[in-house]
Amino acid sequence: MSPRKKFLAMGVAAAAVLGVASVTAIAPSAAQATHSRGPKPTVVLVHGAFADSGGWNGVTRELLRDGYPVVAAPNPLRGVASDAAQLKAKLAQIDGPIVLVGHSYGGMVISTAATGNPNVKALVYIAAFTPDQGESAFTLASKFEGSTLPETLRPVPLPDGNVDLYVDQQLFRQQFAADVPAGEAALMAATQRPATAAALNEAAAGEPAWRTIPSYHLIAEADRTIPAKLQHFGADRAHGVKQREKGASHAVFVSRADDTADLIERAARETD
């Protein structure tokens, strides 16, 4: 149980003892949440392939409640270099410290976009790729057995010669979101954003940001898209902090939004 859930459970128990009809959890105001060490960092959330910014709603709700400014940045999913350049421009407009979070292919993007930005104090990888120079999402995914993603992908040829890749809607839940309620998973399948084949095959260029910026890694242990072994490999190589989520699917940021927010807030505290 996360610290937040434990707190609420204690509140309900206290209410029962005191004979109070109900308990309302009151979140601290932004002013109360500000440390004497300075304002809380802005959390920038970057979605991956086959998702969109709306998938972060549960995490965003938790972070806002705890006084963190949040930006759920759109990820074009067109190519690692171009996606990272767009994110880098967005980060340059944010004043003060930043905690940069990436899910899945978003890990490819944040590893490049954060390089050279002194405001980025921590990187958080949520069931994500943690690439080194010269590695692509596809080459990393084939490093360990366990991913069943390739057989679920459906190509859509584009006029420019590229190919958009979607996850078959009928297979989306079992592949991407097995621990998400069926209705919500169906909505995710219908609103998924495709990644180009070129983006998933494009190698990361330059030194990755995790070599110089502290990293935190949420490991989805039942992930069928990025095998848990690969997530552990990336975290260990980066000498990052790991948080294991047993039974969690690739959509762990949806199914376990509170645990995801807890790790992000830990990164913010420990790198303040």
Automatic annotation (TrEMBL):
Residues 1-33 form the signal peptide. PROSITE patterns: TAT. It comes from Catellatospora coxensis. One of its GO terms (molecular function) is hydrolase activity. This is Alpha/beta hydrolase. Keywords: Hydrolase, Signal. It comes from the Bacteria. PANTHER family: AB HYDROLASE-1 DOMAIN-CONTAINING PROTEIN-RELATED (PTHR37017), ESTERASE_LIPASE_THIOESTERASE DOMAIN-CONTAINING PROTEIN (PTHR37017:SF11). Residues 43-262 form the AB hydrolase-1 domain. InterPro entries: AB_hydrolase_1, AB_hydrolase_fold, Sec-Metab_Biosynth_Hydrolase, TAT_signal.
